[in-house]
Amino acid sequence: MTKALYPFVFGYLFFVLLFTSCSTGKKTESPAIDAVPLSSPMFLKINDAVKLKQILGEQNEWWKLLGKIERLKPLQKGISFIDSVTNANPGFKKFIEGKGIVLSLNPDGVSGSNVLTIIPLRMNGDQSLAENFIAEMVENRHLLTKKRKYDKVALYELTSSKKFDYNFAYSFYRGLLIFSPKVLLVEEAIKQLNSGSREKNAELGALLKTINNQAEVNIFINHQTGDDVFSTYLSDQMKKKASMLKYYSGWTELDATLKEDKIFISGFTNGDTQNSYFANILLHQQPGMSKIESVLPSNVDFFSSFYLSDIEQFFKDYHGYINGLNLFPKNQKQLTDIENKTGVSLENLFVEIFDKEIAESGISFGSSMKNPGKIWIMKTKSGSFTLKKMRDFQEAYFNSTSKTPAELVKEFRIDNQTNILCYKFPVENMPVLLFGNLFENVKASWFTVYDNYLIFSDSYNTLGKVVLSNVLGETLITNSDYIKFQSGLTSKNNYYFFCNSAIAYPEANLFFNSEISNNIVSNSDFGKFKYIAWQVSSSGNMIYNNASLFYNPNLEVKSKTVWQSHLSSAISKKPLIVENRFDTQNNEIILTDSKNNVYMLNNIGRIVWQINVGSPILGDIQLIDLKKDEDYQLLFNTKEKLFIVDRKGKNIENFPVSFSVNATNGVSVFDYEKNKNYRFFVACDDQQIYAYDSDGKLLEGWQSSKTDHIVYQSIQHFSVDGKDYIVASDLMKDYIFDRKGNIRVQTDVVYQHSTNNNLFLEKRTSTHEPRLVTTDFKGNIHRTYFDGTHDTIGINELNDSHFFVATNIDEDEEFEYLFAQGNQIVIRKNSGQILINPIIDGEITSKPIVFRFSSKEKKIGVCCAASNKIFLLNSNGTLYSGFPLDGCSEFNIGFIGNDASNFNLLVGSPDGYLYNYMVK
Predict the structure, then answer these.
(1) Cα 20 from Cα 18, distance rounded (Å)
(2) What values do phi and psi take at 467, rounded to 5?
(3) Which stretches of 507-555 are DSSP H helices?
(4) Is the pLDDT of residue 390 over 80?
């Protein structure tokens, strides 16, 4: 039994060390803990092994995934062993159920590691039950039993014949069953019980009063010897950090609660305040609410941050800590040399500018990066003051040496209106000089100041991209998933480690040894461990730990964007790409959001201006050239007003125009002679159609008759054979007017029009005269000719939610009819015959858009907002390469920059981002 439990314990310990989270409560200690040798580097108490194996059953997705790591496979075998034994032997299940089983992990230099297991015995015959179980095992496995006394206590050693290598020792003592593959550990447990020295260990004793027996597992870590447990699993970089555990504190106790989609751990760290422990430094710092995420890019792989309420006290305590342990003497010498050269104390400089928050972060800006870029960032009391002090130090340092770099200042150009200055920093190892191994993996090669934050980076390029993320509002604090995750953490802390494992798992080699990291990197499902976080806070005379891991089995890795820009809310209409006549290589983007904001963005996604128009915009935003100077204005309306806005976001003279009654459709603009003498048409809820001139006045000479029902679709203008036709459609009828509002074509056919669709003009071909085509609420095709005749193609297969588009897909003489409803697209010939019928993986929520990629190549774009997916189909119905992509709005495809070899696709996200994808 012991040997079967050993891999379970070993693997479980490793699992808990990797993935940690929270749980609280105070219960009395288990007497089984009294038998754990004080020299044990780690032990844990499983509060109910039967419950644990149920939680970690076959239905647990993250548990199965962890089995992909070779080192953790024994863990799953151990759980399977418990399951098989309890199923086959109800007596064994009864024996272990509900008991606090203690497992102590004890490394040694000969056999690797051994586990000491301690099980409390009840008064109702548990010992007899255990003795019978052991006797049965001895008989079945043909074991040899040797009984002897140790410290007057009966101790049994079991060994196998030569055929099997099976050895362990056990003893019944003081109501406990104690066993291990290593007889010496059983002896140490007996010795521990006899010595009664548990009460003498104040560091551990205080923690025993804090444990939560309702958690699945309580974990105890001895910091003086704990690195022996961790090191074998860690990368060389992390082994160095593990070796510092003995300087951190005395003991830590963590309560682990396991769920199907998350893991929580919480507990306290305790150390003698008279000892030189790093944790004691944090006891003198008040926890606070850090806002460092407001400047970290949203694509951060991981970050670790400190909230230091008193930086002067921190440095005072820190110096006492490193001097007492004789740590980092070279750092102190270098700091002294720098001060002698420059007359500036780096420590005093940072005390002068520092404002409570500091962080290190790894950030990936693209798949081409072998390792994430690194930044080191701190909040300052004043950005302008900080920049001056940093420039003064830069100048003083380089004046004291002959090695001045060619570029002290370098401009990072974001766009034509925005650039930042990056400054060369002369002391690349400055973070480790001031903070030791807390930030030993960051090079402070370049720096800049942004919004009162001093940002250092290992490269000029990384630094510029960090600032660009801030300019675009693409920071971690705006990420809705992160905000939701953060709500489960404590609001105040002194230290915070966060890892976006969904994107950071390819960098597993930064944390784990090559065997484990290779197992992780080779399986993208590890990206379904969404976030990992660990928080540390001072709490009286102890340190409180709070951590969590979230797992999402349905999580998909998001497609890479060129950039993404954060808006006030989700976009509400298809983005409009506008040619910039002042810079033809950098087009502009116009869009609206659900909070009634209208935006202009430049080609890198920076918001140039933003205005609020008070109500939702009806219909589409349209471009006009009212001043006839080749510049453009934006034309649109709400139900209350008609707007014309210039390219700077300002209302032009006479606008907005207030409607006397509410509008019911989007404004239409007509330019009959193509001379930019515009007419604007709007239908209102009094069932009248109103026309305005370019000055915003009602158009003289226009007088249409009242429609039978309210008009919701935009008014349309068609020119056929030199004649103008103004067309409106209400619920049941089409109206075809001339320029003055008189009926030009009498339409006597009445049918219930489909809600989502307007009329399309099919020009004259060899087979038919010009005609207007649309659908009714059942999907039947209705065609109206300009002589008033009408014909119908019966479909009767759809409902009123369908979308209809008449377009020339194959570039022949005739139009094709495109239908979309549910998850289906149907393209028919104009005779009604089906050409193709592709199925989409999601419900189509907006009208399909036909994009022209070349003179002979068209694509069909559809959006499935509920599943946050967009699709691009070839004209034959097959899915275009690289799709689907994430997005929940109508999208647009075009050129926005100077790269004419690839298209840009612009689409909105549910959490208020505009995504820019590259489409080849």
Answers:
(1) 7
(2) -65, -40
(3) 514-521
(4) yes
Q: What is the 3-state secondary structure (H, E, C) of 368-394?
A: CCCCCEEEEEEEECCHHHHHHHHHHHH
Question: Which residues 6+ apart lie within 8 Å of 423 measured at CB?
Answer: 390, 391, 394, 408, 409, 410, 446, 447, 448
CA 418 to chain centre: 28
Which residues have CB under 8 Å from 459's CB, separation 6+? 373, 445, 446
What residue has token string 């750092």? 331
Other beta carbons less than 10 A from residue 427's beta carbon? 18
Tokens 């340092």 belong to 397
- Domain span(s) for CATH 2.40.128.630 in the chain: 648-747
Closest CA to 842 of 861, 860, 869: 869
The pTM of the full predicted model, rounded to 2 decimals, is 0.77
Residue 588 structure tokens: 């502009």
Neighbours of 366 (CB within 10 A): 9
Token reading at 594:
């659900």
Report d(CA 23, CA 263) in Å as an integer: 9
Alpha carbon distance 868, 908 (integer Å): 9
132: Cα separation from own chain's centroid: 54
For residue 686, which phi and psi values (nearest 5 degrees)? Answer: -90, 10
Here the tokens at position 558 are: 């998001």
- Report, at the CATH architecture level, how domain 648-747 is classified: Beta Barrel (2.40)
Q: Where are the alpha helices (DSSP H) in 196-328?
A: 202-208, 227-230, 236-242, 278-282, 311-325
Cα distance between residue 615 and residue 634, in whole Å: 16
| Maximum Cα–Cα distance across the chain | 117
Residue that has been written with the tokens 């056990």 in this structure: 170
Q: What is the CA radius of gyration of the chain?
A: 36
3-class state of residue 189 by DSSP: helix
Q: How far apart are the first and last CA of the chain?
A: 61
Q: Per-residue DSSP letters for 552-577?
A: -TT--PPPP-SEEEE-SS-B-S--EE
886-920 b/e (C-beta count within 10 Å ≥ 16 → b): bbbbbbbbbbbeeeeeebbbbbbbebbbbbbbebe
pLDDT tens digits, 322-332: 888 888 888 88
Q: Which residues of 21-52 are buried (b: 16+ CB within 10 A; e: fewer)?
A: bbbeeebebbebbbbbbeebbbbbbbbbbbeb
Please choose, from the candidates 532, 571, 582, the residue with its C-alpha nearest in 3D space to the C-alpha of residue 552.
532
Tokens matching residue 539 = 């709490």
For the stretch 206-248, pLDDT in tens is 998 999 988 999 999 999 988 877 777 888 888 887 888 889 9
Strand partners, 146: 157
How sure is the predictor about 486, in pLDDT bands with cuts at 50, 70 and 90?
A: confident
- Tokens matching residue 37: 């040798």
Please give the Cα distance from 255 to 916 (Å, whole number): 44
CA angle 172, 173, 174 (to 5 degrees): 135
Contact call for residues 736 and 747 (beta carbons, < 8 A): yes
With 0-12 / 13-18 / 19 or more C-beta atoms within 10 angstroms meaning exposed / middle / buried, residue 332 is middle
Please tell me the distance from the alpha carbon of residue 154 to that of residue 175, in angstroms, as a whole number. 13
Please give the Cα distance from 339 to 335 (Å, whole number): 6
The predicted pLDDT at position 19 comes to: 31
Per residue, what are the HEC states of 55-72? Answer: HCCCCCHHHHHHCCCHHH
Residue with tokens 């603009």: 669
